[in-house]
Amino acid sequence: MMQPGLYHLLFISAALFFIGVYGFLTRRNLITMLMSVELILNSVNLNFIAFNKYVWPQRLDGVFFTVFVIAIAAAEAAVAIAIIINLYRSHQSIDVENAEELKY
Which domains does the chain have, with CATH numbers? Predict the structure, then answer.
């Protein structure tokens, strides 16, 4: 079986990134927007691992950055879900348009 090359992984990463950006810009549901941000972060992780494997295979910098991004993404998801739950309790909706009044 053929192993994927650097260009294959970069293509998949770019596809994940643009799907995440499209989902973030077009959706109004906060949970869907959070999942889109996670897709963007996973595309970054895939880039770190791909470049680490094919450009600098003797170093582990890409792996360390990936573990750091995963930890930050987990903390970000926990805080975002807590905010979404509080918004739902107060407004009975997780639509972005209903959260607009929280700015002031």
Answer: 29-103 (1.10.287.3510)
